[in-house]
Amino acid sequence: MDGADFRRLWDELANIGPADTGGYLRFSWSDADLACRDWFRAQAAARDLRLETDRNGNLYARWDASPPPGEPNDGRAVLTGSHFDSVPHGGAYDGPLGIVSAFLAVDRLRAEGAEPKRPIVVAAFTEEEGGRFGVPCLGSRLMAGVVDPERARRLTDPGGTTLAEAMRAAGADPDLLGPDPDRLAGTAAFVELHIEQGRHLDEEDAPVGVASAIWPHGRWRLDFTGEADHAGTTRLPDRRDPMLTFAFAVLAARKEARLAGGLATVGRVEAEPNATNAIAARVTAWLDARAPDEAVLDEILRGFESKVSERAGRDGTGFAIAPESETPIVEFDGALRDRIAALLGGAPVLPTGAGHDAGVLAAHVPTAMLFVRNPTGVSHAPRESATDEDCAAGVEALAAVLRDLAC
Ligand code: GLV
Ligand code: MN
Ligand code: MN
């Protein structure tokens, strides 16, 4: 497997959902996502892998096992894969790299004549980024039973389309959404390969690393309410301007995160009526906060909420904060992590602040992640990158892990 082998398959996805920013628009159940799903089906068919779609819209391509006669085998699968969907104008690698690498790892194992004793299953999870419906890792969370299916069906995208409507338009049945304990029980391990979202591997001069943990993190919706009025005639003391409270909140998030030693970001905002010459009636924004441990995350949120509430009192505005998703700390299976790091010749072991379906599945099955070096360190933006040679090294590493776990 070399860089050119990787590039050949990788280029097949390059024309699905590109935007003029150099990033991608691959929202779940959009035309671009459906084209990615068609590509997945074609890859499964080309390899004679059995295609399955679960009740939550996640896709699987299954290489059935052929255990030697008499050998005990519980039939549970080794799952590998990632997601197709992107954040708005996200990079090419976050998600699709794990799916392309999984198909190439299957090719690699077949080329050497490997016969899996356990099924090897390539997975594509739905709505991992929450880029359309707001809840990240929605496909895996539904599978794990940690999101209420009724709530999921009612989630809306920025255009007002519900998840149920989007699924129906794509020919999927939203009434089936819900927990899938049998599929989890039938999984012996999950390994997600992912672009690194930082420069740790670049600094260590290593093409591939292994994840130790995912920071606890979450998303909160922030509602600021005030009173619309004329920008040219309303005296400053008479205003109830939610934009002021919002502006304070952005700075407060940053300050609380800095003081506590975590991260906080306001990357999305909507104003009503959104007119240059009118005081806003309402501002809605979303806070993303992450920290190395839950106590620090709590400290950031408590500080943020009390400072912004106090400011809203002074501005005469309303302020409400509501969680949209919360993810506790994930410590990946220590034995699996150490086994993989040793198998890869002492690959670096690193934590991440980014969320992944692997973090959701880790509560149910032994789970590991491989990271591929990203020289820019940038992610969720067009400059996210990896060399073809490093991606090929990632495929080799994933094939070694699958060989170890399934063959
Ligand atoms: C997903 O990539 C996230 O960390 O938000
Ligand atoms: Mn992402
Ligand atoms: Mn991802």
Q: What is the strand content?
A: 15-25%
CATH superfamily of the largest domain: Zn peptidases
CATH class group of the largest domain: Alpha Beta
Helix and strand composition category = alpha/beta
Portion in helices: 25-40%
Question: What features would you describe in this structure?
Answer:
The protein has about 400 residues and is α/β, with parallel strands linked by helices. The chain has 2 domains: about 5-215 and about 330-405, Aminopeptidase (3-Layer(aba) Sandwich); about 215-325, 2-Layer Sandwich (Alpha-Beta Plaits). Helices cover about 35% and strands about 25% of the residues. α1 packs across α3 (about 95-110). The protein is elongated, with a radius of gyration of 23 Å. One manganese (II) ion binds near residues 128, 194 and 356. One manganese (II) ion binds next to loops.
Q: Key terms for this structure?
A:
407 residues, alpha/beta, Alpha-Beta Plaits, 2 domains, nine-stranded mixed beta sheet, four-stranded antiparallel beta sheet, 37% helix, elongated, binds manganese (II) ion
Q: Concise description?
A:
The protein has helices spanning 3-14, 31-46, 96-111, 138-144, 149-154, 163-169, 181-185, 200-204, 242-260, 294-315, 334-343, 357-361, 388-406; strands at residues 50-53, 59-63, 77-83, 120-125, 187-195, 208-214, 217-225, 229-230, 263-272, 278-279, 282-290, 318-327, 330-331, 349-352, 367-372.
Task: Summarize the helices and strands and which ones pair or pack.
Elements: H1 3-14, H2 31-46, E1 50-53, E2 59-63, E3 77-83, H3 96-111, E4 120-125, H4 138-144, H5 149-154, H6 163-169, H7 181-185, E5 187-195, H8 200-204, E6 208-214, E7 217-225, E8 229-230, H9 242-260, E9 263-272, E10 278-279, E11 282-290, H10 294-315, E12 318-327, E13 330-331, H11 334-343, E14 349-352, H12 357-361, E15 367-372, H13 388-406
Parallel strand pairs: 3-4, 3-5, 5-15, 6-14
Antiparallel strand pairs: 1-2, 2-4, 6-13, 6-15, 7-11, 7-12, 8-10, 9-11
Helix pairs in contact: 1-3, 1-13, 3-13, 9-10
The protein binds glyoxylic acid (GLV) and manganese (II) ion (2 copies).
Glyoxylic acid binds at residues 129, 136, 354-355.
